[in-house]
């Protein structure tokens, strides 16, 4: 899956507590605000916090957004143990050159690793190449922290696809960039909230290209990814996966489309022979309408909106995006940059908080399985 070795969990390192690497996201969006709010909540509600945090962010941005409200009071608990970091570039990705020897954040401590600051001013709600570059550099540094054993998981705040494209990054989004950075061939996008888990067959591609992108091999490989993640990261011994059809009424016996008969059902049959608990293909409207998701561990959708619309309708702002198949743990809020409310102190940190908590749960499960 990947050619690079990944260090063991935190229990086998020089520290005895987990560390989360949190990346700032687009500094003109709500990322810095939801991070500050989530960190405040973690500190307030968990006085005995047992994990440390590496915050990969613009110091200027964190200070800027902390001034939105006295309730955020970010700098009061942002520990900056080194005032300056030199940065090196590997291809188009920037890394702090002295990350290997910086102090490890203690339990309950947030260590800010300041990113290279662009010349332009912070402009909440604006889409700029500089903010896109800064956001992706932070992601690259977060991945690097996990790969070198400095952190056990990376939690990414939202980036703007338009801004990262303006900055020259030729990837559709976080998921594909993370796969590129870790040299991982097959990854999957899983969305999780308290109502359901959704796994996607195709991810960030235009709707008109979905049918042509599907194949029995692709569907089967994605099913195996999600099955393994449910066992490893969610502790479900025999996960039940429900597969949705692509077409209305799941093709209605071929009358409304042949993908179910030619591609999806053969993949399900092979998966069953491999002892996976899988059924379908189900018509998506009826499946969600009768709340069948309540009786399954994961719903496998054929394309982005087919799965994410019902998930966000059931619990918008509380979900978590998990990239499965990576050699590292990565979670993220289930929403975007929300430029329309950036800088107005209106962003809800619930999804960011949930992403941090799920990352910690995944670290613990992987550690126990090692």
Characterise the protein shown here:
- The chain is of the alpha/beta class and about 375 residues long.
- It folds into 2 domains: about 10-185 and about 325-370, Isopropylmalate Dehydrogenase (3-Layer(aba) Sandwich), CATH 3.40.718; about 195-310, Isopropylmalate Dehydrogenase (3-Layer(aba) Sandwich).
- It contains 11 helices and 14 strands.
- The strands form 2 sheets. A 12-stranded mixed sheet has the order 3-6-2-1-7-14-13-8-9-12-10-11, with helices on both faces. A two-stranded antiparallel ribbon has the order 4-5.
- Helix 8 links the parallel strand 10 and strand 11 (about 275-280).
Question: What's a quick, concise take on this entry?
Answer:
This protein has 370 residues and is an alpha/beta fold. It is 35% helix and 17% strand. Helix 7 crosses helix 8.
Arrangement of strands in the largest sheet: 3-6-2-1-7-14-13-8-9-12-10-11
Tally of helical runs: 11
CATH topology of the largest domain: Isopropylmalate Dehydrogenase
Strand content: 15-25%
Helix content: 25-40%
Task: Give the class from helix and strand content and strand pairing.
Answer: alpha/beta
Number of strands: 14
CA-based gyration radius: 21 Å
How many domains? The number is 2
CATH superfamily of the largest domain: Isopropylmalate Dehydrogenase
- CATH class value of the largest domain: Alpha Beta
N- and C-termini, Cα separation? 19 Å
CATH 2nd-level architecture of the largest domain: 3-Layer(aba) Sandwich
Molecular shape: globular
Largest sheet: 12 strands, mixed
């Amino acid at each position: 899956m990947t050619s690079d070795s990944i260090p063991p969990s935190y229990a086998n390192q020089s520290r005895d507590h987990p560390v989360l690497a949190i990346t700032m996201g687009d500094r003109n969006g709500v990322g810095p605000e939801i991070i500050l709010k989530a960190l405040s909540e973690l500190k307030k509600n968990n006085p005995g916090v047992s994990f440390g945090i590496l915050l990969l962010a613009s110091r200027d941005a964190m200070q800027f957004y902390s001034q939105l409200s006295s309730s955020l009071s970010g700098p009061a608990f942002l520990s900056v143990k080194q005032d300056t970091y030199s940065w090196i570039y590997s291809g188009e990705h920037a890394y702090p050159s002295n990350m290997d020897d910086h102090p490890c954040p203690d339990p309950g401590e947030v260590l800010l690793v300041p990113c290279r600051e662009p010349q332009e001013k912070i402009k909440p709600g604006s889409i700029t190449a500089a903010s896109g570059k800064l956001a992706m550099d932070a992601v690259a540094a977060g991945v690097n922290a996990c790969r070198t054993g400095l952190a056990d998981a990376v939690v990414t705040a939202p980036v703007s696809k338009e801004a990262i494209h303006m900055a020259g990054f030729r990837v559709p989004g976080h998921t594909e960039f993370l796969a590129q950075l870790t040299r991982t061939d097959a990854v999957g996008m899983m969305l999780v909230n308290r109502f359901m888990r959704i796994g996607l067959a195709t991810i960030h591609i235009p709707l008109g290209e979905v049918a042509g992108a599907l194949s029995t091999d692709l569907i089967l490989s994605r099913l195996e990814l999600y099955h393994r993640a449910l066992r490893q990261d969610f502790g479900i011994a025999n996960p039940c996966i429900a597969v949705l059809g692509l077409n209305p009424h799941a093709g209605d016996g071929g009358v409304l489309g042949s993908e179910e008969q030619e591609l999806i059902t053969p993949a399900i049959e092979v998966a069953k022979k491999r002892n996976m608990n899988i059924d379908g293909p189900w018509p998506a409207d009826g499946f969600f309408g009768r709340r069948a998701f309540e009786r399954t561990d994961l719903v496998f959708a054929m394309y982005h909106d087919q799965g994410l619309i019902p998930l966000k309708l059931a619990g918008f702002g509380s979900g978590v995006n998990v990239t499965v198949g990576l050699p590292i743990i990565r979670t993220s809020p289930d929403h975007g940059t929300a430029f329309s409310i950036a800088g107005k102190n209106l962003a809800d940190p619930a999804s960011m908080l949930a992403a941090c908590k799920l990352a910690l749960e995944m670290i613990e499960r992987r550690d126990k399985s090692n």
